[in-house]
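Quick question: what would this complex look like in 3D?
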Amino acid sequence: MANKTKQWSAGDLFIPGLGMGLAVYYLYTVRGLAPLAQLYGGGLSLICIALFLAAVIMVIRHRKNDSAGGFKKLNSLAAVHKKFIVMTVLTALFIVIIPIIGYPLASVLFVASTTIFLKYGNPLRVMKVSIIVTLVGFVLFIIFLNVDLPLDAVTEKLKGVL
Amino acid sequence: MWEMTLASLNEILGYWWLIPLGVGLGIFVGAVPGFSSTNVLIILLPFTLGMESGAGMAFMASLYSGSHMGGSIPAVLFNVPGTGAAAATCFDGYPMTQQGRGQEALAIAFAASAIGGLFTTMITLGALPYLSKMVYYFGSIENFVIILFGVALIAQITGGSMLKGLIAGMFGLLLGAVGYDHVYSVPRATFGLVYLFDGMPRVPAIVGLFAISEAFSMVEKNMIIDASKLSDALKEGWQGTKRGLVITLKKMGAVIRSSLIGFVVGIIPGAGATIGSFVSYQQAMSFSKDKEQFGKGAPEGVIASEAANNGLTSGSLIPLLTLGIPGGGTAAVMLVVLQAHGVPIGPRLFQVMPQLAYGVVVAMLVAYIVMIIMGVPLAKSLAKMSFFPTKVLAPAIISFTLIGSFVARGYLFDMWIALFFGVLGYILKRTGYSPHAVLLGVILGPLAEQYFLRALLLGNGNPAILFSRPLGNFLWVLLVLSMVLPALLARFRNRKTVQ
Amino acid sequence: MKRKGFSAAVKMICCVLAWVLVIGGAAVSWAEYPSKNISVIVPTGEGGAMDRVVRAVTNVWKDYIGVNFQSTFHAGASGEVGYMLFSKRPADGHTLLAGNIAPEMMMYVLQEPDFKFPDDFVYFACMDSDPAVLWVRKDGPIQTIQDLVEEGKKRPVTIATSRFPHPSTLAALLLAEATGAQFNIIPYGGGNPARTAGLTGEVDAVTTFLSSSLDFASDVKFIVMFQNENKWKDISRNAPTPKEALGIQMPEFGGNRAWAVSREFREKNPEEYTKLVDSFRKAFDDPKLQDEWKKVGMDPRFLEFKNEEESMKMAQDMIETAMKYKEILKGKK
């Protein structure tokens, strides 16, 4: 176990790399501001850059040999975790269509498409689940808690009546 | 004081039905991610404004208490904190559910919430006028050190590699430093997005890092509960609830300590319930003999978070009732109701309408008793929700929590932020970084910066001011001790066992 | 089996899409203004003074305009977020903004946001007038503005404010400049935390609007009012003006809660605009407003109507003042 945590692969640089990217951008945006506005975030940015360099050193020193030149962990995100990628794309599409077709329809489509992708069962089961989940969401959030989500004309009227 | 308590109790009997109603509604809205007692109380303002002031306050206090208990339900079952204060409940509550101990975890959460809340409410009732003085001792410096207790957790929950823990924590703190600066209101790293001007929104960050990233991971399995533990969990009757209650009663010391930590944090205006539960978790972890178990399903972790965030509720009303200063969002709504009824606010309240001030606290006391009766028996049936197949749970969680991330500010853009944090959380977990550390950074960072800069300004830029106040220095010593002492004790114990 | 399931799913998706097209194509009916509820963007937080004021006013106004009002709160970046969203809404008069002219025009100058004033919107009415004041604790060592200035000459005195780009902050800074005292301004990110700092003694004084500190009137002493004449003598218990106390002539500083609507709507729909403005004026003159104002815990003595011309002039004046002291307020001087 102890040995495992000491092993670093190039994929482990993704998060520190992201941190460093944000740090560089941060420093760029705070240049020229009053010193107090720079102090805290600027200091953190420098620490993030230093930590990225430390992570690079760790990867060079304790590199785990894998077939993908150390990027196996990241590659595996794409290859093994197809589900993750598809779920992310479907969620993104869900967010895109909410303002266009309203939450209830978007939710039916989203739940249906994810359950079909996850091979939940026959279309009837898929349909039942997507309608039940949407109905629960609609009643709970839109009717009961009065959340101002985008709706289509039919559900807008329904909300007005209820 | 006792006469006043009895008189208040007598008055409350007149509208007793409002308390279970408030508690029930509170548990419900607390369990819905994105909703807090504050935004629901704002929705219900026309209703509470129409009531008599005492009845309105009793209802609001019950709803407020109930919401902190409700927040633990989705936190334990689905890794979705219903309120920010329940984020720390996820750390151990959800691993317990994965081990088939969801019912036990819920029973612990409910019992710790109710007992912790009851205990501090009794203290409030006994010492209300004296406690108001505490507000005078906690300034920007003390607040800064208290937040550092939470930040210290980053170093403690590294889960293996210290460097990875630090990278995650610092990344989180930097994400939390995005937005307008606290002194001159100038933008920093906002990518030109108006939605980030006010900083990284908390609710979408919590929803993404916990709920959405977990939904992405859970579809790799059929059930949340480990396959090996499933059959036992399915057969379970009331045993889980019993075990949970026994554990909570055995660890009464931890419940009392955690609720007191929450209580003190609650009295300080501006700190808030999330800080309370993080600080309490940090303390519980520092001084536990089973540090290794924290984050993997330790009942002490659930107790620490839940007893603290409920212990805090009565404390947070103290600045409002005694000085007229609302310590947080819910207290601010209560202030609106008090003002609308022309109730004198601040110290005059005790001279003119003491029964109202005591009435609120007595209502809270009754609410916590109601919560034990209402909440604990629910654990068994609620735990069954974790038996749903992940193929249905994952889309449902994503669909509902995205609404939750929208509700807090009303921007569809916040759903994108939640998705960003969801993807980030998934990658963090896959590459061995702690999403909890990132979350701590995002939540505590802005507060740490605010209090730090304020303290520096108070000292004309001289950092020595951070060590200039007696209470502040006492807290500094406690902070250092809580970081160093456990390690020293462990070494001492090891040496003893080796000998 | 799998293929069958798939095609059924496709059919189902098609049905749902058909529903979308049908309802999407439904014609939108156009009726007389206002044809639906009016949404109010509040660029400050829920539960704050603006929230209460909007609640009070719309309770009366709705009877004169014939529709209900729905408020949404978009605090953030000293109000910039709310104004940005407001400027992006359709120019049909169904979205109004309820803001505070002076602090928000100051934000406009200092933060250089993406919206344009006065091109994007007009303040069509102002409903109150709330002077900026400096106050100290009643039992503290400093009891007058002279004390504060004297102390400020010996050491930097600490003054809490809700935020840096705020008229009361600028007022305090200008007072310091005029007297040679050192005022160390500390922004607390909100009125409540700033007042708490003043009451608990973390700071020497607090600079704020008068109305927001009246809840604590028995515990504090107002030591200066940044106006040329004190029109609120009884409420402020005779707080002196800078001229009376120190012989200094300063610009007036205060807040004015006002209503804004899209300029495009005003230009293109003069009749509808007149209807909007007239209905507000009637609501303002209705004695019921005073009761509503009291009900939300505000003092009706601050109520003061100003028309579009006066409101816009106030906004322009504030912009000029803020431009003049931009460097100070950005912390660069």
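Answer marked as accepted. Chain B touches chain A through 67 residues (CB under 8 Å).
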